[in-house]
Amino acid sequence: QGKQKKARKYAVMKRMISLRDQRINEKDRAKAPVKKKEDPSAIKEREVPQHPSCLFFQYNTQLGPPYHILVDTNFINFSIKAKLDLVQSMMDCLYAKCIPCITDCVMGEIEKLGQKYRVALRIAKDPRFERLPCTHKGTYADDCLVQRVTQHKCYIVATVDKELKRRIRKIPGVPIMYISRHRYNIERMPDDYGAPRF
């Protein structure tokens, strides 16, 4: 005659006694949170994000030639694949002088990618590129670019990364440059009258 099999019970939690239970000693019991009464005469503090003075509705007054363009890692890679000269194609797109800018984070990202992206690294080290030093901790390039354009509205962001585009679209007054049909295009670039050009 074999042993009777017991059905195993799954996801059974140990029953814990509540800290407010009457059976616990008074000194060990959890105290009920005391609500503070609001003083009606006290000054209420409210933090409202300060809107930048450079924005006149949708028109960003800080944007003007020569345009400073923040370049992302994948933008350089896609430019190589599309056989586009970075600086010349930017000038063809905007009809003005363009200064491509590259942050330390983006540079570090390209260097980490290794031998496969040596052409992109050589382009990034071009003397026509302006190098922007990063003072923050961590080297995640997308966060670095978003933080920089939030603080300074004088940049156009050049990227083909969908996630980064989605994040930058939420920041008012920051145009996005992208690649489509083997040429550079600009998104949300205001014209001279302040109406956004699409």
From TrEMBL:
A single BP term in Gene Ontology: ribosomal small subunit biogenesis
Protein's name in the database: rRNA-processing protein FCF1 homolog
Location, primary (coarse class): nucleus
Subcellular location: Nucleus, Nucleolus
Any one of the GO CC terms: small-subunit processome
Protein family (similarity comment): Belongs to the UTP23/FCF1 family. FCF1 subfamily.
Record key words, sorted: Nucleus, Ribosome biogenesis, rRNA processing
Membrane spanning stretches: none
Subunit structure comment from the entry: Part of the small subunit (SSU) processome, composed of more than 70 proteins and the RNA chaperone small nucleolar RNA (snoRNA) U3.
Function: Part of the small subunit (SSU) processome, first precursor of the small eukaryotic ribosomal subunit. During the assembly of the SSU processome in the nucleolus, many ribosome biogenesis factors, an RNA chaperone and ribosomal proteins associate with the nascent pre-rRNA and work in concert to generate RNA folding, modifications, rearrangements and cleavage as well as targeted degradation of pre-ribosomal RNA by the RNA exosome.
Domain PIN, first and last residues per copy: 67-166
InterPro entries xref list: Fcf1/UTP23, Fcf1_PIN, PIN-like_dom_sf, PIN_dom
Gene3D superfamilies, A to Z: 5'-nuclease
Stretches for region Disordered: 24-43
